[in-house]
């Protein structure tokens, strides 16, 4: 996780120096895609909070060399996988469920099917970027109501029990990403 955060922070730093990259930075500003702006508005969660969570959970290097959260992402046993389409993500999810495996994360926000699948009507629904954002926002808002800090809420989103301090470390890394976005946000 530390290497990932260091990489993301260095990426933002380089973008700010060079002014390159349309996904995150234009004219030394972090550019938040309209999808995240719309979802944040719809679910009444700060846009920077939601976007930072997507970056933490599914940041991906695209074919054009830019980086962005990727909607068709899955994580199984700490192994991240990226799929070309919604259909591919759903197909792989169904295979896992058929094999009796339920603990895997899907989508922009890596919502865990085992622990949060009850929040959605099906794996097909949860794999949909819009539903994935709804469930993620719901969880973040619940955790924020308990702890009063977006960084701590993100930590609990990632690891509610804070086993071995994982939530605390995640919260620290998330806070760094969130601060970069807040300093440079443009949408």
From TrEMBL:
The chain crosses the membrane at residues 35-54. Pfam families: SLT. The keyword Membrane applies. The keyword Lipoprotein does not apply. Residues 42-176 form the Transglycosylase SLT domain. Keywords: Membrane, Transmembrane, Transmembrane helix. SUPFAM superfamilies: Lysozyme-like. This is Lytic transglycosylase domain-containing protein. It comes from Vibrio casei.
